[in-house]
Specification:
Blueprint: E1 2-7, H1 12-33, H2 40-61, E2 65-69, E3 72-77, E4 80-85, E5 89-95, E6 105-109, E7 114-119, E8 125-130, E9 135-140, H3 145-157
Parallel strand pairs: 7-9
Antiparallel strand pairs: 1-2, 2-3, 3-4, 5-8, 6-7, 8-9
């Protein structure tokens, strides 16, 4: 049963970057189509593949959401999903600043304790430390990390 669910917040910068990417891809396609006789591999292979990859990435990124169920914290970014059971949680903290090199979207690191990050903006975020498992930390860029932390702690007590 879902106790709380929210969509990931996105900064204006991210929305503008995605819009710029859409304009860029459409512009490249229109430019290539303006050629008198575009090569068939461009028309039948490259454009459909490029369009499919772009639409998949766009839909995936903007589908990022975080949930608290009666037994776990769930982060999803279609088609990926990460679930951390309450029994697996060692501690929860709010991280005030994310490094610039972190990037956006779903990120994974395997050095010094594996970490998985669901990043939608450069704001304070929630960091969950796990007791065991291959992935030791999960970072979530929730709308209000302090409030989300309180809700997780309340759900863990009940």
């Amino acid at each position: 049963m879902i106790i709380h669910e929210e969509k990931a917040p996105f900064s204006r910068l991210m929305k503008l970057l995605m819009l710029a990417l859409v304009v860029y891809v459409v512009g490249i396609m229109l430019l290539a189509m303006s050629i008198e006789e575009p090569p068939p591999e461009v028309v039948y292979i490259i454009f459909p593949v490029l369009t499919a990859v772009f639409l998949w990435a766009y839909a995936s990124f903007f589908s990022m959401k975080f949930s608290i169920t009666d037994s776990a914290v769930v982060a999803s970014m279609w088609p990926f999903r990460s679930r951390v059971g309450f029994k697996e949680i060692e501690s929860i903290e709010v991280v005030q600043k994310l490094p610039w090199w972190l990037g956006w979207g779903l990120r994974m690191w395997y050095r010094r304790g594996a970490m998985q990050a669901f990043v939608s903006q450069r704001k304070p975020s929630l960091l969950i430390h796990k007791k065991k498992g291959r992935i030791k930390k999960i970072l979530l860029t929730t709308q209000d990390p302090e409030e989300f932390k309180k809700k997780v702690e309340e759900a863990m007590k009940s």
